[in-house]
Amino acid sequence: MNSVASTATEVMQGWGSVVGALFSAFATIVTLMLYRHEVRTNRLERQDTEAAQARMIALRVESESVQAGQMTVLKCTCMNYSSMPITDVRMTAVRSGEAPGSANPRMRAMLGPNDQWDEIWNAGEVTWRPTGNSIELLDVQLSLDFIDAAGRQWTRVGQERPRRVFS
Question: Both 97 and 145 in a single domain?
Answer without folding.
Answer: yes
